[in-house]
């Protein structure tokens, strides 16, 4: 393929593989710094827009969307949440982020973040090619990497860049370009997955509800005033076909049931998906002229909704170091990237793993395991330090936080 004839050749300082939030936010930030990009993605815009993803943004990330001029739609369509509810032992326990650590989060679905970013690229004249095929990234160990792809209309194109950013998600092909003997992959698989639904019914609660019961985990979130987003722990091999609506509701109601009589508002289930559940990190985040960002370099399990926030943090750093690397500082400016990004990555890995263990049950858990977990949950909600820990981790850390 590498020597095949191409229809066009274009030069650009930075080529970005992946038009998810990481790739598009990076393109947006670089454009503001006067650096042009070309972004390619194998998915169509419609495919990305209709894939359900997580829904929580840290306040800093929400503010960045507005202040960098992506869009202020989050202020109208998003919801600021000053706390969350943990439910276990049949009772509700509120963790008041604002009172505990002075921070809040925004409920604003990732698909809306994507729509705002894609619209902003279009508005600002940025180049994004959706629905491409046969993407190849070549010569990353040289100072002149190239990207080749087949456009949706079948034509072949080459982009000559100085740097390539692999923002191509949890099934990244860019990360495979780091040779096996030069990379380290850290990972953990879990003995469960999440069953995610969209249901047409008004919200069941004003804030998110993270529920633990002896039957397992459930999360109650929402998308709009008439559509709820909910998840429950299931086995990794689960098939959506085995889950008629009645069974979904019975399962969810059992996981949130309690002495307070709390019930979920039921309605037609519009979408059912089984979500993959894993922890993953690859190092290094840079190989020659290529850097990895977001899920391509690290994946967290969804509990605590850190993934999108981590990706946005990576590109905030990249948008600072890439213009320097293109200028007088040269490649050495990229040396900062991995240490600055990875500190937060491992903090988030720990938090996502901890919150997962706190709220899920694992097959084979002994009666001791189940009672110990209730003790841990009690420690979290019944002590100020426990609540503050959850609040601080959930709302995120200051950018590049050393504290
Ligand atoms: C949502 C998803 C999460 O993983 C989470 O922790 C909170 C909210 C959501 O999709 O709304």
UniProtKB/TrEMBL annotation:
Query: What InterPro entries does the annotation carry?
Result: FAD-bd (IPR002938), FAD/NAD-bd_sf (IPR036188), PheA/TfdB_FAD_monoxygenase (IPR050631)
Q: Does the keyword Oxidoreductase apply?
A: yes
Q: Which Pfam families match?
A: FAD_binding_3
Q: Which residues form the FAD-binding domain?
A: 12-351
List the keywords (alphabetical): Oxidoreductase
NCBIfam families reported in the protein's UniProt record: PRK08243.1
Q: What is this protein called?
A: 4-hydroxybenzoate 3-monooxygenase
- Give the organism the record lists: Streptomyces exfoliatus (Streptomyces hydrogenans)
